[in-house]
Amino acid sequence: MPAGKPAGERCLHLSVEHLCQLFGDPRRPQVCGDFDADPEVCGDSREDAIRLLGWLEQATSAA
Ligand code: SF4
After folding, report:
1. pLDDT, tens digit, for every residue of 25-49?
2. Which end of the chain is less congested by CB atoms within 10 angstroms, N or C?
3. Rg for the chain (alpha carbons), in Å?
4. 57 CB-side CA count, 13 A
């Protein structure tokens, strides 16, 4: 996604199995490689992560 990934939009590189298709590929954005999963952001499950990230997006939105 050359212009970046807008908040709330699914990344084009996320597979149907919810895996990064650029993992290990030098084209993977640095911000993705620099992110360390953290329970405060990701919770204990995919459902937790979706809920927490949705809350963070709303809490930090400029709108
Ligand atoms: S890690 Fe980055 S490139 Fe990979 S699917 Fe997630 S947002 Fe997309």
Report:
1. 999 999 999 999 899 999 999 999 9
2. C
3. 13
4. 10
